[in-house]
Specification:
Elements lengths: L19 E14 L10 E11 L2 H7 L5 H10 L3 H9 L5 H13 L2 E2 L2 H16 L3 E8 L11 E8 L18 E9 L2 E10 L2 E6 L1
Parallel strand pairs: 1-3
Antiparallel strand pairs: 1-2, 2-4, 4-5, 6-7, 7-8
Helix pairs in contact: 4-5
Length: 208
């Protein structure tokens, strides 16, 4: 796989207050991808990598001490209630397995003309499922340029939460209410389909 993922999204492009990244790298999947007629009837290998921006500092400060680090960590690892310590650390990060499941499901259960479209779909699903401020997706298509002597054709995209939600809006779960109506709203270059939830005549929620 191309090595750009190691340094992707560095510098000032990362969102404020989210200095860390959790990454799932080089997942091999088989899916229908491509614009050529023969590509529409067979599967090809893709390598998927996903990174989400997080802030691990607060969580790690609680569990990783500056003094006597090795001794403290050994004590926590060998403690009778080690599962409690493990769960506390895991609660401060994102599940790598979740990223892998989302990427695989999106690729294998869909059909795409381009790796660019697949990357956009994966980015959206990760933001929806994990509610992260920023995600980067890298896709390698090894077969595409093999005859040209290149390792792969590849695309890398980065998206913020605001690319899929209105500014300041958080993902909402749909809840049963007496009435609902749909609305198409223009947001930048995109048209969003919104479900407006009502209680009586009062709007109480919006679901993207």
């Amino acid at each position: 796989m191309c090595s750009s993922f190691v340094s992707m999204g560095g510098g000032s492009s990362s969102p404020e207050h989210t200095p860390d990244r959790v990454m799932m790298k080089e997942q091999s999947v088989q899916c229908v991808i491509g614009c050529n007629p023969d590509e529409r009837v067979r599967k090809q290998e893709l390598l998927l990598s996903v990174a989400v921006w997080v802030d691990l500092r607060e969580s790690l400060r609680k569990h990783v001490k500056n003094c006597d680090l090795l001794d403290i960590q050994k004590t926590r690892m060998d403690a009778p209630d080690w599962e409690v310590h493990a769960a506390a650390e895991l609660a401060g990060t994102h599940n790598y397995s979740t990223l892998a499941k989302i990427a695989r499901k999106t690729a294998e259960e869909g059909k795409y003309f381009t790796i660019e479209a697949l990357a956009e779909a994966i980015a959206r699903e990760v933001v929806l499922a994990c509610n992260v401020p920023r995600v980067t997706v890298l896709i390698d298509k090894p077969e595409a340029l093999r005859k040209k002597g290149a390792r792969a054709a590849a695309v890398e995209i980065s998206r913020n939460r605001e690319d899929f939600f209105f500014q300041g809006q958080k993902p909402l779960k749909s809840i049963p209410l007496p009435d609902a109506s749909s609305l198409l709203v223009k947001q930048g270059p995109y048209t969003r389909s919104l479900l407006i939830l009502y209680s009586g005549h009062r709007p109480v929620g919006v679901v993207v």
